[in-house]
Design a protein that fits this description.
Blueprint: E1 4-11, H1 15-26, E2 31-35, E3 50-53, H2 55-63, H3 67-70, E4 75-77, E5 79-86, E6 91-98, E7 109-113, H4 114-125, E8 131-135, E9 139-144, E10 149-153, E11 158-166, H5 173-177, E12 182-197, E13 205-210, E14 216-224, E15 227-237, H6 238-246, H7 249-259, E16 268-269, E17 274-283, E18 287-288, E19 291-293, E20 299-300, H8 308-321, H9 331-359, H10 364-379, H11 381-391
């Protein structure tokens, strides 16, 4: 069977996979991206989550010439507020603000809806002559050799690739085919992602409200027809999240308002609601022969502190910047990638998993520990600086 040759095959068309295709293509490599379907790229049917782009992610998109098309749709995040509440309805017992200590510095992050990011990336990919978008087929199998991987897609298409990038999610077929196992922890939680409008301006402040079940996070978005708007990620025990998902819009908005402690006034649901499970996952290796894992094929963390997709984009930056035309996909390239990312991935998965266990609890001793930790991080300057550096991608 004749096989088409490509420098890179990318399995998966989430934001990480699309960004990988654009970045490697801009660097001069031929790229084939394969996925069972093209991402939805509109407000009503696209991904309802949002991403707060930290500085390393912005730098990566700027390097690939993509950031200019995203800027008009981005909302700057000037501060992060952590609000600790107890009881029901929630009563605020403390709040701390985190912002850059240097005057005149850029925002902490720029927030964008995921469906908008997908739209911009697809527009760019469709114009690149060295990108093939292969919709309607996922990754099926591969045989790797020292110099190449022979890949089969689910529609029978055969490919030769110097590098296979697994960006195909937490159930990664590439990871399985490469013989890489993964450690998974389940928390019994699910998260709802949606957008709301509200009467009070968000003032470019992202707020995480803690009570029990996990955080309720309000992330600023551009105004909707002149009305202040925020994206929300709301974590709960699984059965409670599913109950909330079934409520009509009015009842759901009322419960969301209560859970937010009324910080922005009454919330009004302004989008569909997406529901997804909360886990941590870490692949026991990031590479195998002619294969690299990135994003949720390599690691999954709870949606806390904007660490999920930003960690994924850090993977991509490392894989891109350790590549060279003569060594692409070779052991030298893959070893450099593994060395640059393995420790950071392991540390972030462990830390965010532990943080989630502490902050979701309704037990008074753990809620007291949560409050003590918040005060320590906010009020001890060296600890505050270290946590902010880590949170900003450092």
């Amino acid at each position: 069977m004749a096989r088409k040759s490509t420098d890179i095959l990318i399995a998966g068309a989430g934001i990480a996979g699309l960004t990988a295709a654009a970045c490697f293509a801009q660097a001069g490599y031929s790229v084939t991206l394969a996925a069972p379907s093209a991402p939805r790229r509109d407000k009503t049917q696209g991904d309802q989550r949002s991403t707060a782009f930290l500085d390393p992610a912005i730098a990566l998109f700027s390097e690939a010439g993509l950031w200019a098309d995203l800027v008009p749709h981005a909302q700057p995040l000037q501060e992060l507020h952590i609000t600790d509440t107890v009881g029901w309805p929630p009563q605020i017992r403390d709040s701390r603000a985190f912002a850059s200590e240097a005057p005149g510095t850029p925002p902490l992050a720029q927030n964008l809806m995921n469906w908008r990011i997908a739209d911009v990336l697809l527009n760019a990919l469709e114009l690149l002559p060295n990108v093939t978008l292969h919709w309607g087929a996922g990754f099926a199998s591969m045989v790797t050799r020292e110099r190449e991987a022979l890949v089969q897609l689910t529609d029978g298409t055969g490919l030769r690739a110097r590098l296979v990038i697994g960006a195909d999610g937490r159930e990664s077929a590439v990871r399985e085919a490469a013989g890489i196992s993964a450690e998974i922890s389940r928390f019994g939680q699910k998260a709802l992602a949606f957008s709301v409008t509200h009467p009070e301006p968000h003032r470019n402040i992202s707020t995480e409200v803690y009570n029990q079940g996990g955080p309720f996070t309000l992330i600023p978005l551009p105004d909707e027809d002149g009305t202040p708007t925020s994206a929300v990620v709301w974590m709960n025990p699984g059965p409670e999240a599913q109950r909330l998902q079934t409520l009509d819009a009015q009842a759901f908005s009322a419960e969301a308002t209560t859970r937010s402690a009324g910080l922005l006034g009454p919330l009004t649901l302004a989008s569909p609601r997406a529901l997804f499970p909360i886990i941590t996952l870490r692949a026991k290796a990031l590479t195998a022969q002619r294969t690299a894992l990135i994003a949720e094929a390599a690691h999954v963390v709870p949606p806390i502190g904007a660490q999920g997709l930003n960690t994924s984009l850090n993977d991509l930056a490392a894989l891109l910047h350790t590549a060279a035309p003569e060594t692409l996909g070779a052991r030298q390239h893959l070893d450099a990638y593994e060395k640059s990312r393995a420790r950071d991935v392991a540390a972030r998965v462990a830390a965010i998993g532990l943080y989630n266990r502490l902050t979701r609890s309704g037990l008074p001793p753990l809620q007291s520990l949560r409050l003590s930790g918040l005060k320590a991080v906010a009020d001890v300057p060296p600890l505050r600086r270290a946590v902010m550096k880590a949170g900003m991608g450092g």
